[in-house]
Specification:
Elements lengths: L10 E11 L4 E12 L4 E5 L6 H9 L7 E9 L2 E2 L5 H7 L4 E4 L3 H4 L6 H12 L4 H14 L5 H4 L9 H12 L6 E5 L7 H18 L2 E6 L2 H5 L4 E6 L2 E7 H6 L4 H8 L41 H4 L5 E4 L2 E3 L14
Parallel strand pairs: 3-8, 3-9, 6-7, 7-8
Antiparallel strand pairs: 1-2, 1-4, 4-5, 9-10, 10-12, 11-12
Helix pairs in contact: 4-5, 5-7
């Protein structure tokens, strides 16, 4: 993984804010999220459902669903600001320089188009390949992601493939134009454990072979641990802990991160103990948090947690957490 002081990051996100206006209130889904991503690096974005991690991924792609809007912050891809792009320019980058693997291939793949036609469509839009050359490239991509008989599978429809094969086809479409950044939104959801491992191995291999950077969005800490260089834990739309994967997962500081780790199922042949659940429910996200967003669910909460929303504070080399109790803000930590 590149060091933090290496060359200019491939993707730089600063103070990203995404909001969804409603009839009576505004839903603040992403609140001040910042991170850097270097070439060949994988960032794991983790958190429970509704924490804002998928919205971060869609914001990177310029695909925040209506009525959602990016209302603040910056997204710079290879030095180009994406939040101000509109129309043809954003469409020219989407799929070519930044691409996405969607959570459910049955809903993201067109059910009335063959797999080959969908890959060829992407190639036609973003490259100069046409006709047999485009078809040959589509077959090559299916072979690259491990689909047997790639030439024959070009004529298959999504419903004719297994869940794992559909996900591989979705990955083939995403990498068809050699993007610099690949956003993978829950790429192993609804797949059995064996296929999950195959998909993770495939993503790691493609990252190494093609030199892509990956933003891996997942609720599965096991999947993230197997591929990510760094982890960013999101709660209530805020980044509450971030750092190298080993630091965050083996030496977690924030009580929420500890709760996520404790709720995992371990398969070791022994009778599993009762899983520890995080009490309560996620916050409503109806406005900027004036206190720690995790306070009502936290067993360690103190009076100071009511006073303000804690900022990220260093707890180790490149490891930060936002907690008044475990990681009180030190002088110079504000930035």
């Amino acid at each position: 993984m590149p060091a933090a002081n290496d060359a200019e990051p491939l993707l730089r996100v600063r103070d990203l804010e995404v909001a969804f206006p409603g009839a009576r209130s505004v839903l603040h889904a992403v609140n001040g999220v910042s991170f850097d991503l270097h070439r060949g690096e994988t960032l794991g974005v983790v958190g429970e459902s509704g924490c804002g991690k998928s919205t971060i991924g869609r914001a990177l792609m310029g695909l925040v669903p209506d009525p959602g809007r990016i209302v603040g912050g910056s997204i710079r891809l290879e030095g180009e600001e994406l939040t101000t792009l509109r129309g043809d320019r954003m469409r020219s980058l989407r799929g070519r320089r930044i691409a996405m693997i969607f959570q459910d291939p049955m809903s993201s793949l067109n059910p009335v188009m063959t797999i080959g036609a969908q890959i060829i469509e992407s190639l036609t839009i973003h490259t100069r390949l046409r006709g047999r050359k485009a078809e040959a490239r589509a077959a090559e991509l299916l072979r690259l992601v491990g689909i047997p008989d790639p030439v024959g599978r070009l004529g298959a429809y999504p419903h004719q493939l297994s869940g794992g094969m559909r996900q591989r086809a979705g990955i083939a479409m995403a990498i068809s134009c050699d993007p610099a950044v690949l956003v993978a939104d829950e790429p192993t959801t609804a797949l059995d454990v064996t296929v999950q491992a195959q998909v993770v191995e495939l993503l790691a291999r493609l990252r190494d072979e093609l030199g892509m950077a990956i933003v891996l969005i997942s609720h599965d800490l096991g999947v993230v641990a197997g591929i990510a260089d760094r982890v960013m834990v999101v709660y209530g739309g805020y980044v509450i802990e971030t750092g190298r994967t080993a630091d965050v997962l083996d030496r977690s500081t924030h009580p929420y991160t500890e709760g996520l780790i404790a709720s995992r199922t371990e398969i070791d042949g022994a009778r599993p103990e009762r899983l520890r659940a995080i009490p309560g429910a996620a916050p409503a996200l109806m406005g900027p948090a004036l206190e720690c967003p995790f306070r009502e669910r936290c067993a360690l909460a103190e009076d100071v947690c009511r006073d303000s929303n804690p900022a990220l504070s260093p707890v180790g080399d490149g490891h930060e957490a936002a907690c008044h109790v475990r990681a009180p803000l030190t002088i110079g930590a504000l930035r």
